[in-house]
Amino acid sequence: MKIPEHVTLSVLLAQFAVQPEFGLGGTALMVAAGCLPDLDGAAIVAGWRFYRKYHRILGHGVLMTLFGPLLLALVGAAAFGWEALATLWLWLQVSLLAHLITDIYFYNWPVQLLWPFSRRGWGVGLLTWNDLVPTVLLYTATAVALTWPPGAQPAALVSIAGLTLYLLWRSVRPRPEDGWSGWLTGSWATHSAPFWRWLTGDFIS
Ligand SMILES: [Zn+2]
Asked: Where are the domains of the chain?
């Protein structure tokens, strides 16, 4: 999943506890945790080759998974009070794990979860690069959450449930088909115009 989608998924996950309890500061931490693994995407400044080599490895490894959310929770607890530590840690961990799970199931770009202890990569690749169904689900619900607080939790729930169902459906029907179900399975995504790719946050492929 690409950065804007990770951001929106984190904002939606924040609606269940962190945003109601800690407000926008809490949601900002959730977004930070949800994007933490892609810090290794900063490898792009060192060039495309370096990026292809190290993206999905450094930031997606077990050390970041174990310690990243804890560090962010400590920052949050210093701001919101130490009694907030356990709640924050739990939800920041959820946000980071959601990043890893979507990365693994979405595309065929192996995620090295155990780096630096193992180079084994996991990638299920259920979706076509630039599939807009998750994008629409995530962006719509985030717009609702940000503009209409009473609807935030239901919107987050519907969006995340929809995303899960879509992934389940794609695992049964992994191949894009023709017609309307072809649209839903992303058959158009491989040759889509740049605008649609930009919508998902992909400015480089
Ligand atoms: Zn990632």
From this structure: 3-199
